[in-house]
Write a structure and sequence with these properties.
Helix content is 68%, strand content 0%. By secondary structure, it is mainly alpha-helical. It has one domain: MetI-like fold, CATH 1.10.3720. Helix 4 (100-136) packs parallel to helix 7, helix 6 (156-167) crosses helix 7 and helix 8 (201-208) crosses helix 9 (213-221). The model is unreliable at 1-33 (pLDDT under 50).
Length: 310
């Protein structure tokens, strides 16, 4: 029996052993599971890791930053007006004597809230719009796509400013503006994914076992089309903050004395003429770092989710 087994094992005509073997971990060059593989791919992109690290630091600043300052972010103190950076005021004070570091910390919270809510709202609305348009197709798809064409015929910044001027300046209205301006790109992304997936075999199998249209759309099709949405969301976070700051700078977004990066730049721009560079420099620096970090993170996510870049 042992001789027969050895002969069969050495037989070159015998098919190779196809029994399942445990996967290698991501560190060993295998997948290590889907999330392990995504993390492995993401860590290989050094710039994306740096961007994610900076973004995490900015988020932590907004969460725990108030623990490191005792100043009021909205209460003027004319005795401390226009002070240069020092140990008492790390980033100086503005023309009203308010500590710039304190205002940046609280502005970080405001801008993060705007970015998260705007991107989340646009992604949800756009995904629902795109999956319905692509799944039912024909006349409904044509009407819905022409409606998006009409909305996107206007430049994004002009459309956003027009809606903001009509609604009035407030935090809620800034988020509404960003959702309306951004959701068409998510709708087109999801629509293109659904059009390529809805004729797949697994959709026919799901319909055969009795799944209705709603379950097929939201249980089978939509989850398989969200890869590009994740990438676009990470890129759109930075753009949303930049757009919100632009509206606040022009007086159509958050209003002073509420702390927000665009408001701080608008107030500090007047002081820069008098040589008080720190009033607008530090809020502008945080906008630059946030947008750059979000862009690098988006590039890393694209490297993970796009099979053509693996």
């Amino acid at each position: 029996m042992n001789i027969g087994r050895k002969r069969r094992a050495a037989d070159p005509t015998r098919p190779a052993d196809t029994r399942c073997r445990p996967e290698k971990s991501a560190a060993e060059g295998g997948t290590g599971g889907s999330w392990g593989f995504f993390l492995y791919r993401f860590r290989r992109n050094k710039l994306a890791a740096v961007g994610g690290g900076f973004l995490l630091l900015i988020v932590l600043l907004g969460l725990i930053g108030p623990l490191f300052t005792s100043y009021n972010p909205t209460k003027p103190d004319m005795k401390s007006a226009s002070l240069a950076p020092s140990f008492a005021h790390w980033m100086g004070t503005d023309a009203l004597g308010m500590d710039i570091f304190t205002r940046i910390v609280y502005a970080t919270r405001t801008d993060l809230l705007i970015a998260v809510m705007a991107v989340l709202g646009a992604a949800i609305l756009g995904s629902l719009y795109g999956v319905i348009s692509a799944f039912y197709g024909r006349v409904l798809d044509e009407v819905m796509m022409r409606a998006l064409d009409s909305l996107q015929a206007f430049p994004s910044i002009l459309l956003g400013l027009a809606i903001a001027a009509a609604l009035g300046p407030s935090l809620r209205n800034v988020i509404i503006v960003l959702v309306v301006v951004n959701f068409p790109m998510y709708a087109r992304l999801v629509r293109s994914q659904i059009l390529s997936l809805k004729e797949a075999t697994f959709v026919d199998a799901a319909r055969t076992v009795g799944n209705n249209n709603a379950r097929i759309m939201f249980r089978h099709l939509l989850p398989n089309s969200l890869g590009p949405v994740y990438v676009q969301s990470s890129l759109n976070v930075g753009w949303s903050v930049l757009m919100a700051a632009s509206m606040s700078f022009l007086g159509l977004g958050i209003q002073a004395p509420e702390p927000e990066w665009g408001v701080m730049i608008s107030q500090g721009a007047r002081q820069m003429v008098q040589g008080e560079w720190w009033s607008a420099f530090f809020p502008g620096l945080f906008i630059f770092l946030f947008v750059l970090s979000a862009s690098l993170l988006g590039d890393g996510l694209q490297d993970v989710f796009d099979p053509r870049r693996r």
